[in-house]
Design brief:
The complex is a heterodimer of chains A (234) and B (503). Chain A is α/β, with parallel strands linked by helices and 234 residues long. Chain A has 7 helices and 10 strands. In chain A, strand 9 and strand 10 (204-210) form a beta hairpin. Chain A is globular. The chains are: A alpha/beta (234), B mainly alpha (503).
Chain lengths: 234, 503
């Protein structure tokens, strides 16, 4: 269980997130600028907030990003352009790139799982957007951290590829029993990946419900405003 | 150079080649330049890494000091070095350590004092090109400092190293005032000093042009070899704002950083402090009240300000031309060449440029009254390599990242400059500051062309030392260095904006 009770202020933006997240996939929905990515950056340790952050009764707040049991996939800059695909995945297992046989096997397994076996010697510049994000997911598999944060990593991909990636994330989450948080602008993505949804408005968690809530007609009272905003913005 | 060559006799050149003295000078020039640039860069690498990763009290000041120390007037720095490392210097008085300051050791100490900070600044420019996303990933993946250095930093700084090495090598190879003051005799003489002797004492234009040509040839050969084996410097665009992410610390990292900072503390800071030593003497106030000092200050400003403006304008001309060639079908090879052309000025000794220009103007019938503009022009041209180093990376980056946006929106000329200004003002300030300080501290050109009405601060200082008024000279050095610090700060503040001073 991931227990979040975090406050963060920046300029005129004041956030106060309070929610207990159970394992499985949870999609973070909300309009732009409401504080979805801020929450992910706070969890990842890239922003300093106040309050409490516990995972399985262990406090994470005082830990540096690399000490937290978390892997984060960002919208961009997930790969090192100077390293090959294999090296980009392997640094997840050992930052110094000196791997044991077992770790090497794990890297190969992850590359196989993400269908990148024939791309191991390539550099990120030679990959398509989808392939590059698959490399990042392969690294997540190798790192094997219990929490996975996804900050719109598939937003630049075409719908078919995005769907493929979401299935991959879902599969990985179930197989490794992860607690996965996915930031998205699209309620359809939440429906596709299943699990639960969190609605964030003005830096606060206003709803934490099963994903089926999105299919209700008329719209769930807590989500009606968001859907109103979504339909206006479409 | 062409003007000088007109006065040369090819037949005499064979005679010069057979002189063993010439080859000794060439060998020593090469040896001391290689050692100086190698040591400067070896120290600069851990120092730059430490400055990037650690935030400590006095870091901003140290960076400002680094910017200034490479352009500290040579004569002032030599005074500081003598106070610290001389026979009765601080080192000898405090620890009883005697360093043979006159000879190779002295030359190396002075060159490292000037060029290690320059190497750090150049490497930091290389660090600036590392996308923040890489640091964020490194922080997430728990990279130690050595891993981050191996996998991220080295990849970027190895591209900045050849340029830095060539620049420092050329500066040391053509070192003039340092070798003249600390060389300790003909055993430790460089080509530049030999050119000076040929021009000043013998007025032998033939020999001077031969030696100058030889210097240009060696520097060109060296630059060609280094650039041929150097990797291409490419920029990776990242939209993530520049932030510092925490990396895993260790005892090893702390020890390396401490050793690097200790090197800085011993090599750079004491000579600086020594320069300010005369502030407490009684002569200082008397020197401040002297009208000759303030006349020299005004002359210095009259030379340095227009020279810096001209140099930055020249730098922009180079930059705009290089940018124009980028991404154009048959011109893509040109930007690098244009930048190298700017650096080539370092190969030609300042004295040769000045003498050549003087001869050229004399041929046109313009006499000595034009010497003010010769000094301004030569100073501007001599500062060009530094200006280009500061300007080019950010001009290139703007072009690479936003070229298509500018093209699609039709943003050109003045509108483009006004948009870019916020992003390039920091490097412009740095370029202007470098040019200003280099001109302010120039001793070579002004020594050749200085006259009754044209006595700048360094020349005034030189005249005082020449007439054994050492104490007054040291006080003038304080005034000169204070001017350097204040003008560099003001240039950063006024042109670069408040944030540039903080960085």
């Amino acid at each position: 269980m991931l227990k979040i009770k975090l406050q963060y202020s920046w300029d005129s933006f004041h956030a106060d997130y309070r929610v207990n997240i159970s394992p499985g996939v949870t999609t973070l929905l909300g309009a732009s600028g409401e504080g979805k990515s801020t929450l992910l950056h706070l969890l990842g340790g890239f922003l300093n907030g106040h309050g409490e952050l516990d995972f399985n009764s262990e406090s994470l707040l005082g830990l540096a990003p690399y000490e937290r049991p978390i892997s984060t996939l960002f919208q961009s800059d997930n790969l090192f352009p100077q390293l090959t695909v294999w090296q980009n995945v392997a640094i997840g297992a050992s930052p110094s790139l000196s791997l044991s046989t077992e770790q090497k096997d794990k890297v190969d397994w992850a590359l196989e799982k993400t269908q990148l076996v024939d791309k191991t010697g390539r550099f990120p510049q030679a990959l398509s957007g989808g392939q590059a994000q698959r490399v990042a997911i392969a690294r997540v598999l190798v790192r094997n951290k219990p929490i996975l944060l996804l900050d719109e990593p598939f937003s630049a991909l075409d719908p078919a590829l995005r769907e493929e990636m979401l299935h991959l994330v879902k599969e990985v989450t179930e197989e490794l029993s992860l607690t996965t948080l996915l930031v998205s602008h699209l309620p359809q993505e939440a429906s596709l990946i299943g699990g639960k949804v969190i609605l964030i408005e003005k830096g606060k968690v206003v709803a934490y419900e099963p994903v089926t809530v999105l299919n209700q007609t008329p719209a769930h009272p807590l989500f009606s405003h968001y859907f109103g905003v979504s339909s206006h913005s479409l | 150079m062409a003007a000088l060559l007109r006065y040369s006799e090819l037949s005499d050149w064979f005679g010069y080649v057979s002189q063993p003295y010439l080859w000794r000078v060439v060998r020593f020039s090469l040896w001391q330049a290689l050692l100086s640039s190698g040591i400067s860069i070896l120290i600069a690498i851990p120092v730059a890494s430490c400055l990037v990763h650690r935030r400590f009290y006095g870091r901003a000041f140290l960076l400002q000091l680094f910017s200034v120390s490479m352009v500290v007037p040579t004569i002032v720095a030599i005074l500081g070095l003598v106070v610290v490392y001389g026979r009765t210097g601080w080192l000898s008085q405090l620890f009883g350590i005697q360093i043979p300051l006159y000879g190779l050791t002295g030359i190396l100490l002075a060159h490292v004092f000037f060029n290690m900070p320059l190497a750090v600044r150049l490497l930091l420019q290389g660090y600036d090109l590392i996308p923040s996303g890489q640091w964020r990933q490194a922080s997430q993946l728990g990279f130690s400092r050595i891993t981050a250095f191996r996998l991220i930093e080295w990849h970027y700084i190895k591209k900045a190293l050849p340029g830095a090495f060539v620049l420092i090598f050329m500066l040391c190879f053509s070192s003039f005032a340092v070798v003249l003051s600390l060389g300790g005799g003909p055993k430790s003489s460089t080509l530049e000093v030999a050119i000076y002797q040929a021009l000043r004492f013998d007025f032998d234009l033939n020999k001077a042009s031969f030696l100058a040509l030889m210097q240009v040839a060696i520097c060109t050969l060296f630059a060609v070899i280094v650039y041929r084996i150097a990797p291409v410097n490419r920029q990776d665009a990242s939209l993530l704002s520049i932030e510092l992410y925490v990396l895993k610390d260790s005892l090893w990292a702390k020890t390396t950083d401490s050793v690097a900072m200790l090197c800085v503390f011993f090599l750079v800071i004491p000579p600086f402090l020594a320069i300010f030593d005369p502030v407490f003497s009684t002569v200082f106030l008397q020197t401040l009240l002297s009208s000759s000092l303030w006349r020299a200050v005004i002359v210095s400003l009259q030379i340095a300000l227009p020279a810096a403006a001209v140099s930055v304008m020249l730098g922009f001309c180079f930059g705009v031309l290089a940018r124009f060639c980028m991404g154009r079908k048959y011109l893509t090879f040109l930007p690098n060449k244009i930048e190298h052309l700017g650096n080539m000025i370092l190969m030609v000794p300042g004295l040769v440029i000045a003498t050549g220009l003087f001869l050229l103007l004399r041929d046109f019938g313009w006499g000595l009254q034009s010497s003010y503009w010769i000094v301004v022009w030569v100073n501007a041209v001599m500062a060009l390599p530094f200006v280009l180093r500061a300007l080019m990376p950010s001009l290139y980056q703007q072009e690479r990242r936003f070229r298509n946006v500018y093209l699609s929106l039709g943003i050109r000329n003045w509108s483009r400059w006004s948009l870019e200004w916020a992003l390039i003002r920091k490097p412009v300030a740095q370029a202007f500051g470098y040019a200003l300080l280099l001109s302010l501290g120039d001793m070579g050109v002004i020594a050749l062309f200085g006259s009754q009405g044209l006595v700048s601060l360094p020349l005034y200082l030189f005249q005082l030392i020449g007439s054994y008024r050492l104490e007054e000279g040291a006080c003038v050095a304080v005034v000169l260095i204070t001017f350097c610090l204040v003008l560099f700060y003001m240039s950063s503040r006024l042109i670069g904006g408040a944030s540039s001073v903080k960085n």
